[in-house]
Amino acid sequence: MALRCVVELGIADALNSNPHGHNHPMTLSQIADRIFLLSLDIDGLSRVMRFLSCKEVLDVSIEMESGEVMYGLNNSSKWLLTRSESENCKKALEGMRNGKMIIVEAVVRPQADSLFDVEALRYDLKMLVMSPSGKERSEEEWNKLLKEGGFS
To answer: What does the H/E/C string look like for the chain?
Structure first.
C-alpha cells in the first residue's frame, strides 16, 4: 500500500526533481510542494515517508541546523521513478544486467479488449499529465528497452 502511494503521488519523482540536484535530500514540506494534489494530507504523507524509511526504501537524514527530517532516493527507490525517459530507463537497466528483475507494469495494447487494457491507457494519460516524458509502454517498446538495457 505504501509503495502504491509513492507511485501514485509521484513521491520518488518529487525527490528526483530537487533543484539542488537529483540526489539531494528534501524536507517533507519541499516534497509536498512538488506533489500536485490540492488536498494533500501532510500528516498522512509523513506517516507514509516514515514507513518507507523504516523499510529502507528511502534514505533519511536529519538536517543539522534545523533538525528537520530529510528524505532522499536510494538504489531501491530509484526504481519507483515514473517520469523517467527511455534513456534514463536504459541506464538503470544496464546497472542490473547481472541480476534478475521482475517488472510489474501495465502494457499498452492497440485495442482495449479488457479492463486491464483500459486501466493501462488511463495510467498512460495520467503519466502524460504528470510529465510529458512519462508513459506506459507497449510490448514492443518494453522489448526494445530491455534489449537496449542488456536483457534478452
So the answer is: CHHHHHHHHCHHHHHHCCCCCCCCCEEHHHHHHHCCCCCCCHHHHHHHHHHHHHCCCCEEEECCCCCCEEEECCCCHHHHCCCCCHHHHHHHHHCCCCCCCCCCCCEECCCCCCHHHHHHHHHHHHHHHHCCCCCCEEHHHHHHHHHHCCCC
Which residue has cell 516534497?
A: 31
Give the per-residue pLDDT at 87: 64
Cα-based distances in Å from 143 to 60, 74, 89, 90, 136: 35, 26, 13, 12, 13
- pLDDT tens-digit profile of 39-69? 778 888 888 888 888 888 888 898 888 899 9
- Percent of the chain whose predicted confidence (pLDDT) is above 90: 3
Amino acid at 41: D
pLDDT band for position 86 (cuts 50, 70, 90):
low
The pTM is what?
0.54
- What CA–CA distance (Å, rounded) separates 52 from 76? 11
